[in-house]
Prior knowledge:
CATH superfamily of the domain at 30-103 and 398-544: MetI-like
Order of helices and strands: HHHHHHHHHHHEHHHHEHHHHHHHH
Strand order of the largest sheet: 1-2
Radius of gyration: 30 Å
CATH class of the domain at 30-103 and 398-544: Mainly Alpha
Largest sheet: 2 strands, antiparallel
Strand content: under 5%
Shape: globular
Helix content: over 70%
Structural class: mainly alpha
Mean pLDDT: 83
Distance between the termini: 39 Å
Number of helices: 23
CATH architecture of the domain at 30-103 and 398-544: Orthogonal Bundle
Low-confidence stretches: 144-156
Amino acid sequence: MKKRRTFWIAxxxxxxxxxxxxxxxAGPVVFSLWMSLTDWALTKHNAYxxxxxxxxxxxxxxxxxxxxxxQLFWEYFGNTLFLMIGIPxxxxxxxxxxxxLNQNIGPKRARSKAGAVGVTLLVTxxxxxxxxLVTTPGLEPAAGAANYAAMTADSGLGNLAVWEVQKLRSGAxxxxxxxxxxxxxxxxxxxxxxxxxxxxxxxMLAGVAIFLLWKALYxxxxxxxxxxxxxxxxxxxxxxxxxxAALWYALGLLLWASGVVLCLWMFARGTLGLTRRxxxxxxxxxxxxxxxxxxxxxxxxxxLFCQLPPRSLLPSGLDILTGEQLSAIGxxxxxxxxxxxxxxxxxxxxxxxxxxxxxAIEAFTTIVGDxxxxxxxxxxxxxxxxxxxxxxxxxxxxxWLIDIRWAKPALxxxxxxxxxxxxxxxxxxxxxxNIPTELYEAAxxxxxxxxxxxxxxxxxxxxxxxxxxxxxxxIGGLQGGFDQARVMTEGKAGTTVLSYYLYNxxxxxxxxxxxxxxxxxxxxxxxFIMTLFNYRFGSRATNL
Length: 544
């Protein structure tokens, strides 16, 4: 009786929280499952129309996975997976930063610490002065002078003169160097806690404020990133065009060859260590991921060097089709598909005089329905180009958040910057503090070096922490991307992810609550399966 009485008293205290969970969490979740089985759309089924939602079973799921919405759904799912490329990079950066901040940085004695701070401040003052002398413009010219040209509004800098723009950039450079020097000096004076606070600070700021800041930094004209890249790209342009192209070809091929040899060597050593049970399965998995990342990086750098000269070593694309070539293509297709001759003729007139081969293939395929036949006619008419990155307009700064080739990488870079010093860093710091010092002492006695201590002591001891971080990051990656797409790109340039797609279907302009609920439950299934896979694989690897 006493235990039963204690139980009901405990339930009475838990009742408010339990009711809140049932009303605000469990209830809406179950209701959304019912909604996903209906055709509920607010524009059709509301109090004014008098119509009620109809039960349609699994029709919404069929539309998403195989029907009318499948193309958009799988495209946005691919965008979501692409943005998740930054997750392993962010985890590796968090681990590296935690290892660095776990050390006792700076001198320990008060006199040495004061001397280090003084030297840092002196170097900062000299660096600020040198930057000001190098970057500050001369006296403001007269308003009618030729070099006093007004900036256009498209530059993002308003109606400012060139001299004013140079002065603003000089002030920004001086301020950045001064702030960096003061941060280093304060860190030496206070200790590692200060640096940990500085790196964690972005995680404490509002997400929208961070996104707006990065949106301003990514501005193609007048943004700080492109303003910094532009002179560096100009130097690279002059260097590449003034040296033999064969030098860059050879450097790219050498990077490819060395990357292959290095990856094979690392993979062979890891496999041998696994067979001898010198390393665990999780360590081997981490090694394989490192090898893949290193191979991709070497491959990308080699391709970049091979494509740098004005005439690239590898094909860089196809030349545009002229009006005469389009007419010839139209005649050939008309002969092969006489029933669609009139539509083909109209398509040739609509496409115009300058068109890309891919666009022409898509247009004619829509008419005749046979992509391979269209490609067999179009491709012989095209010319393969070998235009390098320094040809034409030369190396231009990326069109961040505008060009489909750069929008997703821009979001990945911002995500990595935010994640490196965030909660993952704190988790790794906590994990590092729990590693017994006796293990490092034993490794030192055995003569282990720095890398061996990390591979055989630090990394295996951090396996549970890494396992938790991977699971939570995967869940967050599949659910995330909405804020960035909404604030920074509005889903343009290939940045629409599943969460933003769900929002558009439910609340933007379509108000299809049934279909949106189906998207949510499909996302839940994907997250559940991936989490289950990570748990089953990771729990075995970490012996949890």
